[in-house]
Amino acid sequence: MNKTNHQAASMENIYTLDGKVPMLKSIPFGLQHVLAMFVANIAPIMIVTGASGLSVQETASLIQTAMIMAGIGTLVQLFTVWKLGARLPIVMGISFTFVSVFCYVGPQWGYEAIIGAVMIGGIIEGLLGLFAKYWRGIIAPIVSACVVTAIGFSLLSVGANSFAGGVGAADFGSAQNWILGTITLVCCILFNIFAKGHLKQLSVLFGLVVGYIVALFMGKVDLSALEGVAVVSLPQIMPYKPVFNLSAIVSVTMIFLVSATETIGDTSAMTNTVLGREATDREISGSLACDGIISSLSACFGCMPITSFSQNVGLLAMTKVINRYTIATGAGILILAGIFPAFGAILATLPEAVLGGCTIMMFGNIVISGLQMIGSCGFSQRNITIAALSLSVGLGFTQVPEMFAIFPDIIRTIFAENCVAVVFLAAIIMNLIMPKDREA
Asked: CB-based burial of residue 174 (10 Å sphere; 0-12 exposed, 13-18 middle, 19+ buried)?
């Protein structure tokens, strides 16, 4: 009887933050979090390295590093190191937020300039996170909502380029790429429609697997990256010599501020929907500091910034499984996946069109999430004005980058084609100058 009671108590602990859960019972729940985010964790790497001209071997190595850094970042969020981490079930991964700016910085100044900018920008976000209680009020919910919406819109063209075969591809827009992208997208949609319960979370993974198999039969998969891959390998420190380009640093730091608003939103959403309370200043500060400092650490290993993953917040809200030790098993799985480089090498062979078929659906979901956030803020006249003006200016002006010709180079670099930065700045200014009693 005592043994039965002990087992029941252990199972119930998956719904508490700190209860101990047996390892075998933890693994499936941790694996579920990995499966919900792993495609989104590797997709930014593949998009940015492709735009920056890195080789398939380099991409495979960075995917390996991305897995390890995502696992380390998740563990820090779960259990904290000094003031880094929120002690909350926040799953970390490579951020989509930076894709658009990196796809500009990489071709312009090289991948080394991305690494240098991430090192500096991450430290700045980390320091801001440590003092978050002094400035948190500036980032109102309507500002975060506008930023998330802009991120979704800014990534639609990225997904479309991948769907067509990738920027600069010799067969860009070919019938083969259309077929691969369409098959992948349709499989994602059908799985999402017909799958039951938690399986719906795996619709992107299903589409990716089917698309990859079809690509193999079509001869669109280059398996040369698997030649000579070691069984076990660890990431290299400083595989790329960082270049500290001022324009790149300013551009990327601006997006770090945008990423901070997303992290605040994710942390607040998690505590509200799962724990039934507001996030504390300590939790917000810890999550932001972890975002920034671990991103800088990631750059030291040649990788991109990491941040909290919204899809995992949604998974927490759906399952109510918030146990930190349970989710830590997912972090362990990520680290182990990164230690075995063959895994990253296989993922690096994924054709752009297959990736585009998956990501175009994911990017559309980001747009809808942003619109839902705007709706949850309430359609007061003040919120409508902030959202309407910031989105129209940000999305509209950056469609005509020539209109920024009168500004200095550094301003054009940051704003001319970066709608997220423009929306963020416009929303912040509008939120500060518009009276709170606008309705009256």
From this structure: middle
Q: Give the CA dihedral 94, 99, 103, 105, nearest 10 degrees.
A: -80
The pLDDT of residue 172 is above 80: yes
Q: Under DSSP, is residue 14 helix (H, G, I), strand (E, B) or coil?
A: helix
Strands (DSSP E) contained in 245-284 are: none
Distance between CA atoms of residues 422 and 150, nearest Å: 9
pLDDT tens sequence across 4-37: 444 444 667 878 888 888 887 788 878 777 766 7
Q: Please, are residues 364 and 156 in contact by the beta-carbon 8 Å criterion?
A: yes
d(C-alpha 421, C-alpha 426), whole Å: 9
Kindly list the domain boundaries of the chain, sorted by start residue.
19-222+240-433
Structure tokens at 308: 């909290």
For residue 130, pLDDT over 80 is answered with yes
| CA–CA dist 344, 49 (Å, integer) | 14
Give the other-Cβ count within 10 Å of 2's Cβ. Answer: 6
**Rounded Cα distance, 272 and 275, in Å:** 6
Sign of CA dihedral 345, 349, 354, 360: positive
Q: Is 165 left (phi over 0), alpha (psi -120 to 50) or beta?
A: left
Q: Give the contacts of 308 (CB within 8 A, at least 6 positions apart).
A: 77, 90, 91, 92, 262, 263, 266, 267, 287, 291
Give the HSE-up count for residue 7: Cα atoms under 13 Å, Cβ half-sphere: 6
191: Cβ–Cβ under 8 A, 6 or more apart, which residues?
199, 200, 202, 203, 206, 207
